[in-house]
């Protein structure tokens, strides 16, 4: 509790002073004395007791319950739209940071004001940090506070898109009247008939091959790269709009680089493949003829997915390399919940309290298959019955085929699903349940904090068993048997559970109202009538294969390429062969496949490397807000794998920071910092803690100080550095 109570700290302290004085004056009577303490003081006191500690075997404490019927597992999904925007903003910030850092390092005499540009970045840094509040991204705020978060995020995103667009224009020396407008994953920017280009930035420090989708106004399109060569692309009718088409462009981009693609209405020769649509009759699931099963196959190089034409539902997936088939079907269900405190436990922003098991929502399913040489999209529409006018839910499942000469491993191995959910009826909680014939013994795995996988065995309770077996899926969840694993990767947080053997269900949306006075006072009733469109990638395969795939795939989902649109108005359209060459550059910074470049940014503050000195000058009022230090870069490198996860990828990695960063300039000094960047690592004295297993040794991480800028990154380690480049 006590949220925001310290807004006026002096009131708090003058009240607590009275309590402290009273207790300390009567310490003989109470047997205690009290003092104000920092976290450091507290741990020092605990440490000096020299106790022996048990190890909790890396398990967290979730889920929390405050009463038998009060499982705090609703907030894992509350305000799904906000959760999606927060993650998208965070991803754009990540891209903007590295883009700006490269620009400043390589174009010191640029026309863009660096301080102004940093302010644009800072507006998004601020918004992304702000929404991490425990009543922010959790969805446990009132609607007007949620609107504030969204406005701040959208404003910051707008600023960073504007900054990235102006950097591209500056680097291409375009005429100042070159119009630019940019869009990140948005589907509302149709490309008109004029000659336009799509700029695509890869924010990851590896080469990627993937599809970007843009809306276009014509079916007949050609796509060219900077050199005027045709680029594989596919255009098809849009599921969402009758006036536009979806154009999928296959992009191959090296790390931290961008490419320009010229999109033209067809001039003579066909370039983009056309996706052809076949619509199948709506099927009544309740009357499905089990005798005569007709299966419709959809195939790429990695999977064969079968759909049952009696029900229009998914039937099975075969992983083609091992020829393992998993029976797999998906359906939407809703938990009905109570909103009247007089009638029993309620669901709200925080709590999930279902009345009973989830109820299937749809008796009839429509199916449309759009197939082309590169992309196959299966569109399923879920209706309450055969005669319903409008569908309640939709699933768009996409499978990709990559032509020869492209690295299609990651693309081929994911089955991408996008859902359309809502508006829900009141006091309904919507889940997508995937049921398989894997003998999982109801054991679920989820990521804690997006970082470490946790085992989640199903537990039977006297009360509220359904809700108390829900866990947060920050990005990853999976189920498995002895040989095969089904992995789910999400682009926003959800609640996830395994309510039956071989099952995994993801809560996608909630719409609630209740009359609990406390909720009404704060307008915390979650009457959320929005439509949400979350995305989940399915990966199926052996444990060894999925172990390798899901780390890189998870990052590829979180950091999808940034797409911007540009039109050079006022100029006569350039022929493809005359486009500037300088935007095609080889990868500037590339890390090995088991590492992730977690941060490459220019801190916005002048920060003394000596923390004690820095704090002292703040206390003395000497800390002036100076300009940022543009010759210092904050760098973080993370090892993606745990010990023993993979024979090769789980090994420690040696990195030469000088050669890693040579594309940005000549590295003069590298200073290793604590995780937050606050402390010089050499000033840290790590404590050893005694445990029952290691009575003397305990935990102790020795830091290898980086000689000659060569560092070793160990499994699951994150290392942080200040890097100083030769003066500009």
From TrEMBL:
Subcellular location(s) per record: Secreted
Entry-linked PANTHER family: ALPHA-MANNOSIDASE, EPIDIDYMIS-SPECIFIC ALPHA-MANNOSIDASE
Reactions catalysed according to its record: Hydrolysis of terminal, non-reducing alpha-D-mannose residues in alpha-D-mannosides
Record protein name field: Epididymis-specific alpha-mannosidase
Lineage top rank: taxon: Eukaryota
SMART domains: Alpha-mann_mid
Cofactor (UniProt): Zn(2+)
Protein species of origin: Fregata magnificens
């Amino acid at each position: 509790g006590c949220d925001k109570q310290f807004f006026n700290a002096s009131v708090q302290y003058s009240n607590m002073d009275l309590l402290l004085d009273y207790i300390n004056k009567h310490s003989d009577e109470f047997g205690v004395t009290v003092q104000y303490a920092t976290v450091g003081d507290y741990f020092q006191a605990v440490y000096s007791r020299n106790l022996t500690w048990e190890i909790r075997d890396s398990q967290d404490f979730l889920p929390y319950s405050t009463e038998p019927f009060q499982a705090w597992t609703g907030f894992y999904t509350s305000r799904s739209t906000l959760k999606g925007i927060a993650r998208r903003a965070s991803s754009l910030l990540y891209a903007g940071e590295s883009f700006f850092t490269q620009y400043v390092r390589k174009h010191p005499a640029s026309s863009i004001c660096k301080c102004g540009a940093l302010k644009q970045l800072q507006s998004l840094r601020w918004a992304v940090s702000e929404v991490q509040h425990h009543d922010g991204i959790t969805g446990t705020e009132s609607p007007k506070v949620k609107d504030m978060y969204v406005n701040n995020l959208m404003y910051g995103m707008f600023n960073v898109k504007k900054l990235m667009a102006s950097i591209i224009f500056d680097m291409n020396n375009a005429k100042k009247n070159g119009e630019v407008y940019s869009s990140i994953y948005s589907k509302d920017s149709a490309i008109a008939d004029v000659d336009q280009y799509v700029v695509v930035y890869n924010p990851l420090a590896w080469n990627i091959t993937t599809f970007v989708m843009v809306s276009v106004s014509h079916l007949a399109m050609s796509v060219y790269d900077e050199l005027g060569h045709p680029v594989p692309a596919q255009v098809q009718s849009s599921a969402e709009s009758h006036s536009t088409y979806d154009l999928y462009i296959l992009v191959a981009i090296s790390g931290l680089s961008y490419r320009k693609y010229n999109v033209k209405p067809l001039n003579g020769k066909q370039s983009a493949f056309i996706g052809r649509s076949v619509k199948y009759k709506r099927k009544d699931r309740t009357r499905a003829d089990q005798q005569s099963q007709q299966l419709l196959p959809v195939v790429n190089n990695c999977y064969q997915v079968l759909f049952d034409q009696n029900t229009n539902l998914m039937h099975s997936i075969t992983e083609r390399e091992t020829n393992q088939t998993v029976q797999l079907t998906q359906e939407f269900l809703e938990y009905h919940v109570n909103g009247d405190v007089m009638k029993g436990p309620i669901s709200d922003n925080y709590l999930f309290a279902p009345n009973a098991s989830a109820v299937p929502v749809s008796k009839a399913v429509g199916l449309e298959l759009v197939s082309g040489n590169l992309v196959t999209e299966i569109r399923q529409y879920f209706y309450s019955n055969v005669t319903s006018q409008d569908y309640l839910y939709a699933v768009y499942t996409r499978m990709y085929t990559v032509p020869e000469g492209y690295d299609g491993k990651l693309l081929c191995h994911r089955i991408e699903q996008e859902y359309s959910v809502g508006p829900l009826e009141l006091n309904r909680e919507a889940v997508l349940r995937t049921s398989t014939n894997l003998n999982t013994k109801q054991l679920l795995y989820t990521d804690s904090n997006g970082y470490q996988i946790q085992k989640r065995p199903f537990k039977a309770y006297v009360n509220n068993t359904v809700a108390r077996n829900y866990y947060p899926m920050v990005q990853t969840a999976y189920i498995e048997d002895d040989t095969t694993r089904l992995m789910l990767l999400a682009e926003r947080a959800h609640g996830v559970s395994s309510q039956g053997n071989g099952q995994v269900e993801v809560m996608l949306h909630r719409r609630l109202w209740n009359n609990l006075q406390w909720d009404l006072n704060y307008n915390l009733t979650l009457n959320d009538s929005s439509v949400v469109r979350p995305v989940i990638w399915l990966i199926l395969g052996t444990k060894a294969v999925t172990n390798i795939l899901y780390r890189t795939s998870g990052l590829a989902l979180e950091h999808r390429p940034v797409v911007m649109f540009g039109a050079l108005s006022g100029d006569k359209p350039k022929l493809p062969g005359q486009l500037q060459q300088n935007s095609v550059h080889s990868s500037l910074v590339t890390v090995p496949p088991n590492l992730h470049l977690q941060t490459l940014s220019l801190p916005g503050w002048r920060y003394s490397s000596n923390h004690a000195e820095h704090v002292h000058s703040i206390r003395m009022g000497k800390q002036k807000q100076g300009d940022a230090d543009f010759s210092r870069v904050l760098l973080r490198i993370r090892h993606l794998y745990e010990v023993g996860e993979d024979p090769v990828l789980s090994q420690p990695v040696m990195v030469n920071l000088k050669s890693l960063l040579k594309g940005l300039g000549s590295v003069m000094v590298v200073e290793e910092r604590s995780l937050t960047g606050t402390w010089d690592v050499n000033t840290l004295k790590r404590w050893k803690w005694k445990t029952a297993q290691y009575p003397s040794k305990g935990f102790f991480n020795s830091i290898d100080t980086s000689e000659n800028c060569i560092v070793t990154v160990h499994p699951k380690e994150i290392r942080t550095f200040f890097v100083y480049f030769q003066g500009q």
